[in-house]
Amino acid sequence: MSEEHYLELCENPVQFEHASSVNNVFFDEANKQVFAVRSGGATGVVVKGPDDKSSVAFRMDDKGEVKCIKFSIGNKILAVQRTSKSVDFINFIPDYPHTEFTQECKMKNANVLGFCWTNWNEIVFITDQGIEFYQVFPDKRNLKLLKSQSINVNWYQYCPETAVILLSTTVQGNVLQPFAFRNGTMSKMSKFEIELPVVPKPAKLSLSERDVAMATIYDQLYVMYLKHHSRSANSPSAEVVLYHLPREGACKKSHVLKLNTTGKFALNIVDNLVVVHHQSSQTSLIFDINLKESDSVNTHQPVLPARSIHPYRIPLSGPAVVPSQPPVPCQLYSSSWSVFQPDIIISASEGYLWYLQVKLPPTVNLLQDKGKLMDFLLRRRECKMVILSVCSQILEGGGFGNLPVVATVFDKLNQVYKDYLEAEQSYTVTMESGPSRGSAAQKRPVRTQAVIDQSDMYTHVLSSFTERKGVSHKFIIAVLMEYIRSLNQFQITVQHYLYELVIKTLVQHNLFYMLHQFLQYHVLSDSKPLACLLLSLESTYPPAHQLSLDMLKRLSTANDEIVEVLLSKQQVLGALRFIRSVGGHDNVSARKFLDAARQTGDQMLFYTVFRSFQQRNQRLRGSPSFNPGEHCEEHVTHFKQLFGEQALMKPSTV
User: Is the full-model pTM beyond 0.85?
Assistant: First the structure.
């Protein structure tokens, strides 16, 4: 069971002073910073971020209880809210005055609910009467109102990734008004209504801030609504309803995630998966909105069975710690946990901020449908090695009954591979033709881990599979041909090393008739490396020589190039026979062949090649000797050392 935990807390959490030793702990979602605030005399603030650069400690005057505190991007300006009417600012830019300056909200009788930095020098105040968008001038120590909007506000949420603020309006709070911020501009997006559960009259439900979250999933912004079960018989369980929020156009209800239980829940987004934590069962569920369900496009069941987050142990620290003391188990799903988007869990009582992570290997055995498993894995960030191990695992099942599954998996992999190749080709063509007017600069396609190419399959799966003992050679060949079939189906050029693997497997099992058929019917595409491999098989299978020559003629390849390839593979006699067959023996460089023969270390091969060129010299010039221009002196000396001078051919006399 322990190996089935597919969620875990990161190994290196952000540590901060826990709640028992400070007055207040605040979290800034934009900068991923935790503020531990201790007041009394002067207010001490310790800021911990994801790295050392974003961590800082400072003191400020105690001017009342801190309600909210956040840095602008890059820790340049600090904003602190202490009252419901104003926000104070302190410069952290070097050489700028550190004196505090204050901005009151413009709307009369309004109360500031909070604020959000949308840029290093742009801030939005959210009040119960609307929003106010300001530009901050740290050098002048003042703010300029850029735009404001009057609207009754119950509560708000901010998505820093997209710079969108969501306001809850109306008595029931279920009419949501989003605003988008970009480069000093504020734009009103389409408002929308969230459907609340039906309750018996006269009771009325209102939308709670706790049940709403905003997050980016697959590069699209969604508002997630945790809809608790109503007592009506048709919906006994809770569900998460996703509303798609486009930059332009209407917001639409797009997905429903079925939780099949009731209770307290919290939401995270990890690797484009919606993670739903259930407190009472201490388990989590994951949903993938891009995995299409059979019953309905928009209704989703959990991808995997519910499992708890992997147990986490907190190492003890401090002067009283004995080295042998074991780490303390962390209480998972604690009521003191706070969950933030997209993937953050904070335990204020223990002073830890964790990033939630997905572990892919445990998912492999939990998802039996290998086609669905492949769809799931291909959408994850760190998926390559897990996908390749799944491919090996499927082939280990080793039977023809498994072939349809193998075919499905290959097709899914090659669809992604083909999409990447086409995007790469399109980018290359665009770059070569130069930028066209009015078109946005095209970005080079990113090669994700989901792109499993032929070398990946060959190196990690197929080459070891062909050598596996106890697997039927017919099944091995069927699998190799299935992969080649899939590549051809997606019009991907098959690399020669895959054909070589097929040929070597056929030869190893003496299936020459099948090899002949594959070549005759062009199942194996012509290529120079393939032709050279066939030439090397001549001693095992004599017809391979002619098959190879036919292939080379079809390729219309330059003969000297073929000779170079053969010599590089130490097929020296094969190269000699080939050059004779095409009538080029009289003109080739003797030294090139003698160099290659000598490099093999095979003395009899060197003898045969040397004697062959002596015979050529005799036939062409009436003497077996090499001309000085052929630079073969060192090979003549080497021949004498090996076989003695008497072994040299003597000029024949007529």
Answer: no
